[in-house]
UniProtKB/TrEMBL annotation:
UniProt similarity note: Belongs to the azoreductase type 1 family.
First-tier enzyme category under EC: oxidoreductase
Family matches, as Pfam families: Flavodoxin_2
Organism, scientific name: Synoicihabitans lomoniglobus
Listed name of the protein: FMN dependent NADH:quinone oxidoreductase
Span of domain Flavodoxin-like fold: 2-201
Quaternary assembly: Homodimer.
E.C. designation(s): 1.6.5.-, 1.7.1.17
């Protein structure tokens, strides 16, 4: 039985364009994998904790000496990493906020990128400890920041996610954009329709 982890970040629930395209992906995936299980992490509804001093203590000192706060911080990080490791496939649905990720998605990344669990360093440098798997990232944008567009140089979301997920071992990424969501009804509708068509093809693959 396959497991798909859906990490959702928009605070707009069903009105969210990234979630609407994500729903198309999930429906197609479920049709292709009738026995498959979808685990949903709604980061807007339940934001991950920010890294704090207890997290530092937990991640960088020996477990035997951990304070209760450090143990709690590591339990949250472990839970997020375990969900990631248990997934055969990952879908992230997200808006672009100010040229980059929503803060809740950055907070989730800060929980899962952890030395000794998802990456390590040795004499050869950094090495991701997450076995690669299919990751689809569905991005809703008010404008057009897609590769090939004139504003692509302002798109810090895609290069950052490629960098940080690659750092922990996830390199099989595909980005799907629902562009022009602030560009008037016609452009917004087309942006979602194009993204849904791409999502359907990807989910069935
Ligand atoms: C705080 C904030 C910042 C935003 N920054 C950008 C941006 O940098 N580029 C862009 O194209 N759209 C930007 N938008 C527009 C959203 O990306 C767009 O409305 C998107 O459809 C929201 O995603 P959702 O429909 O999944 O909720 C921003 C919206 C908000 C609220």
């Amino acid at each position: 039985m396959k497991t798909l982890l859906h990490v959702s970040t928009s605070p707009r629930g069903e009105r969210s364009r990234s979630n609407q395209v994500g729903a198309t992906y999930l429906a197609q995936w479920q049709a292709a994998h009738p026995e498959g299980r979808v685990v949903t992490r709604d980061l807007a509804a339940e934001p991950p904790s920010f890294v704090n001093s207890a997290w530092f203590e937990g991640a960088f000192t020996a477990p035997e000496g951990h304070s209760p706060a450090a143990r709690t911080a590591m339990a949250e990080s472990d839970h997020n990493i375990d969900q990631l490791f248990a997934a055969d496939e990952i879908v992230i649905t997200t808006p672009m906020f100010n040229l980059n990720l929503p803060a809740v998605l950055k907070a989730w990344i800060d929980q899962v990128v952890r030395a000794g669990r998802t990456f390590t360093i040795d004499e050869n440098g950094y090495k991701g400890l997450t076995s690669d798997r299919k990751v689809t990232i569905i991005v809703a944008t008010g404008g057009d920041f897609r590769p090939g567009s004139p504003a692509v140089g302002y798109n810090f979301l895609e290069p950052y996610l490629r960098g940080v997920l690659g750092f922990i071992g996830l390199t099989s990424l595909t980005f799907v954009y629902a562009a022009n969501q602030s560009g008037g009804e016609e452009a917004a509708t087309k942006g979602v329709a194009d993204a849904k068509a791409e999502a359907e093809t990807l989910a069935a693959a």
